User: What shape does this take?
Amino acid sequence: MAIADGGPRTRERTLRIGTPIAVGLLGLAVWQLLVGVVGVSSYLLPSPAEIASEWAANASSIAEAAWITGTNAVLGLLVGGVVGVLMAAFASRWRGFDQMLAPVVAALAVGPIVALAPVLNAMYGADSETGRRVIAAIAAFVPVFVNSLRGLRQTTPLHRDLMRSYAATGQQTFRALTLPTAAPYVVTGLRVASSLAVISALVAEYFGGPRGGLGSYISTSAATSAYARAWAYVGAAILLGLALYLLTVALERLVNRALSGGSR
Amino acid sequence: MSTSSSTAAVSATGVGKTFSTGGGDVRALTDVELTVGSGEFVSLIGPSGCGKSTLMRLIADLDAPTEGDLQVFGKSPAQARRDQDYGIAFQQAGLLPWRTVAANIALPLELHAMGAKQRRARVAELAELVGLSDFIGSYPDQLSGGMQQRVAIARALAEQPRLLLMDEPFGALDEMTRERMQAELSRIVGETGAAVVFVTHSIPEAVFLSDRVVVMSPRPGRITGVVTTGIGREVRREESLRETSGFFDTVTAVREALHGAPVGGAAREGR
Assistant: This one.
């Protein structure tokens, strides 16, 4: 049975992982071909080989820059996430609070948060990372809040009746029923927020403040026409975003597996 | 405790419930007079909208009556709920999917801060009672509907309540499982000595399980008759009971009470 099942499953897995890699490699090959053989100006589009060599030459500064931007994004995600869950808990408990908060959240959701960067840089001083962290936190807050609030409202009347029949206190009901019911929604919110936090932390660096992050390197490299180096930093930014995203996907899977009952 | 054992489990006088909706008031229940003795098994039967579930929810203090006086063991339903005098089970088992069978049964005990060691012993005892000792570590999704309902019953019995409230607990089960669960429930209730208020759609189920069957009618929801089954508590609920002529006669009596036709049998009272 294991063998009969194993065959197609392994093949499916190979296909699932192999296909995107093959497509990526093919893309890179076409790209290299366009620049190297067809002769698209490397000024317009640096070849993958050039970008790779820039990466190798600047590996330590890329790692350092990724660390700075990554720290801002992660701190923003954590603070935004915690505040989002707390606010959602209050909003689900008190309708008035929800109504008070709704327009603010709507404004945050539609407003270009990174446009606040110059203002926040001025507020916290030009040599502080705080403004960028605040921006990442605000960007992360919105999806976590919206998803959590939805999750906190998913308890069924049946379960609420049961908790009432046990004479459970509000806090007990929240811990035993409401929070576990909301958990899958909270982690989905975090997954969405993870990409937003990285993008916001990165783009906020375009608007001044201390140098050293991926965003500031991308803008300086591009400004000095070092396009291959700029692309190397862009590549690092993609990897950073991907890493944080995959981390939250793993968290989401973990939580969902735990909530659906262990091994399955 | 010795004084309260003589008090009726449920005592309703002139109880009514009116729901205020957007389209005006709906009288879900009116003028209910009902006494459920300690250790008595009483079924509420009737068509949809007759208020049988509403009555059970009033007893459980999940809703409040708008008229009349309702007492549970001589106290207000709210006090009885706070004292955990009743256990409750619904048509849906309502288990928490992220908790094992053991953790589901233990939920009320956990909420009332019973020590971990004591809790484990009580859970083992309850699992044994409902025949799920081998599945204590399983998750609800891994169990059949009947097994889930057993867990719900064990959970309802966790606090050793003197009253068990059940709202169509076997309504979602297939006929064979249902009949087996009825016999099981009868045995469990016999072992615990709890009074039961049992809401059902099924006439044979009500007759098989009960000391008395309360027949209800809709618009407005009210009690229209009470049939005493005459099957004593001491009689073991076995499959053979379903084939006795006494059983058939009582089923007929309940059916006639439900349809409002005149009844010849003696097992009829309190119209």
